[in-house]
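idk why but the lab printer keeps eating my pages so im just putting this in chat instead. protein + benzoic acid:
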Amino acid sequence: MVNLGDVFPNFTAKSTTGVIKLHSYLGDSWGILFSHPADYTPVCTTELGRVANLAPEFEKRNVKLMALSCDSVEDHLGWIEDIKAYNCLNGEFPYPIIADPDRDLAVTLGMIDPDEKTASGMPLTARAVFVIGPDKKLKLSILYPATTGRNFDEILRAVDSLQLTAQKKVATPADWKSGGHCMVLPTISPDEAKTMFPQHQVHKVPSGKEYLRTTPLP
Ligand code: BEZ
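predcted complex ->
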């Protein structure tokens, strides 16, 4: 199990583009590792296609992508052709799919879904997402069950927030989208806020406490 702020394990694993050693694969980039239960399954086919279609958006944000399931590299390579056909993708598949047939990574990273098993009773991975920062530390993790496909626009939105809040002393409110107003961090004093965010606004609330401070995107 990896907690927020932990250095992500520097695993070595086989993938559809060769052996990946995580930290050197990431270099100075951000990274996303997302797992799915199994190859040749319908929801996973839509998810990997959606991520392939969004690959230029992740690249713009300097994010390197990796998918993972418990199947072999050979299975992944065959399945990629189905993903491309179903999702109208041409050319080279834009990110590697890691093989984890022995469930080594699935166990280390806490990705096993207790409700999902192969026909022979072997455990399968849930739909995990790990966002890793350029410092190799875990910045965000989410875990969905096999039966609920993920919303990858939300993952992109979360990356925008993570990258902004890594640089500026703000937090992003509910349903924030890139470019929208942000909240000044509660740890910033009123004097600091005046200098750092000259256009910020303090919103009056019944408690009289001045903690709701919004600012245009700094
Ligand atoms: C799917 O990708 O469609 C799927 C995989 C495992 C369990 C349920 C759905």
